Every structure is written in structure tokens, then in C-alpha cells.
User: What shape does this take?
Amino acid sequence: MARHSAPEIFNTDQGSQFTSTDFIKVLASREIKISMDGKGAWRDNVFVERLWRSSKYEDVYLRAYASISEARAKIGRYLGFYNPRRRHSALGWKSPVAFDRKVAYMSTWGGTKARQVH
Assistant: This one.
């Protein structure tokens, strides 16, 4: 929060580091609302977990970063590749961005309710 403004809502799982009194006090002192996923709510994180697994096996484990700054830069580059260009088998070998645009287009012209494109 020293680098960025305080969020309106902080969403976490119910891990002990997030349910500790000290952590809760920091959020409460800044009037940040707390949202916690239920215990064992694995579905809440499945997409992020898949992203991290892909990044580890397709980038991190293949390189030996010389420094933290190099790791940040290279992982940042991979994340910049992941949504616009990485093809996913579950999306018919389209990138997430291309798939989302196609779904939004088809929804608009197919007579069904259009999804918002972010």
C-alpha cells in the first residue's frame, strides 16, 4: 500500500496470514473492506493457479534468473504474452483475448445477451 493506493476491497483466502489480528488491523485502520473466500473453495483460485502453473513450466523453470529484477522482468514479459498471444487448448487453440472477442462478437450478433469485454 506504500507504493499504490489502498484498495476498496481486499480479497483473500482464509489462510492464517490473512486472518491474523495484526493483518486485519492494518486493513481496518485504512477502512478497507475484507472479502474472504470460503475454506476449501478451490474453484475461486483455479484460473490463477493454472496461470501460475503455466508460467512456471513454460518460463520460470526453463531459465535460471540471475537476479530478482531479471525474474520480475522476464515473468512480466511472460504475463504480457499469456493473454494476448498464448494459445489454449481449452479455447479451441485461441488466445484468451481472441477467444473473448469472438464470444463477445457472436453474442452480440447471435441474438443472445452480449458479454462485457474488459
Summary: Residues 84 and 98 are 7 Å apart (CA to CA).
